[in-house]
């Protein structure tokens, strides 16, 4: 079947099966490897992308169901206002450890800010609970989201490096 999807502002015509997951399309056909494969069953969040600004698990989304909704991936999230704020905060707080989950974390966090500009701790927990980080960067993720929302480094309550469990 032929499908046309719009990714990061560009249209792509695909000749593929209806049930191919969007994640496969992004990584294997379009060569956009920023979005990661983790579990493949919608349980970890590593594959999170946006459809019209809302987060979806691309590992379980058939390409045939994308339709005319705008797909945004980690490669272009920095071109959006909230995506830029989120990425800047991630760097300022130094969130990343191994990095594997972080594309999905940033996409989930940006989607949260899109719908809730000043999230509470409860909002953050609810929005981020489905994004697993095996390096347990959760405290820094929460701090970075607060910084992105407020623009205030102090509000982020950045965890001192010495408290990060041995990371040099
Ligand atoms: S790879 Fe999609 S949720 Fe884990
Ligand atoms: S930073 Fe390593 S899995 Fe999240």
UniProtKB/TrEMBL annotation:
2Fe-2S ferredoxin-type domain mapped to chain residues: 1-77
Keywords: 2Fe-2S, Iron, Iron-sulfur, Metal-binding, Oxidoreductase
Taxonomic superkingdom: Bacteria
Coiled coil: none
Cited SUPFAM superfamilies: 2Fe-2S ferredoxin-like, CO dehydrogenase ISP C-domain like
Alphabetized GO MF terms: 2 iron, 2 sulfur cluster binding; metal ion binding; oxidoreductase activity
Keyword Oxidoreductase appears in the UniProt entry: yes
Keyword Iron-sulfur on entry: yes
Name recorded for this polypeptide: 2Fe-2S iron-sulfur cluster binding domain-containing protein
């Amino acid at each position: 079947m032929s499908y046309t999807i719009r990714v990061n502002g560009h249209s792509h015509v695909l000749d593929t099966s209806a049930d191919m997951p969007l994640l496969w399309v992004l990584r294997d056909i379009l060569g956009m490897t920023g979005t990661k494969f983790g579990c493949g069953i919608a349980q970890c969040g590593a594959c999170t992308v946006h459809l019209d600004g809302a987060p979806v698990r691309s590992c379980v989304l058939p390409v045939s169901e994308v339709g005319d909704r705008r797909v945004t991936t980690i490669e272009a999230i920095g071109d959006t206002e909230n995506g830029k704020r989120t990425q800047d905060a991630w760097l300022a707080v130094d969130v990343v450890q191994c990095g594997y989950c972080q594309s999905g974390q940033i996409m989930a966090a940006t989607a949260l800010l899109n719908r809730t500009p000043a999230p509470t701790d409860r909002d953050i927990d609810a929005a981020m609970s489905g994004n697993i980080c095996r390096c347990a960067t959760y405290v820094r993720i929460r701090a970075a989201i607060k910084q992105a929302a407020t623009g205030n480094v102090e509000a982020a309550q950045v965890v001192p490096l010495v408290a990060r469990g041995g990371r040099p």
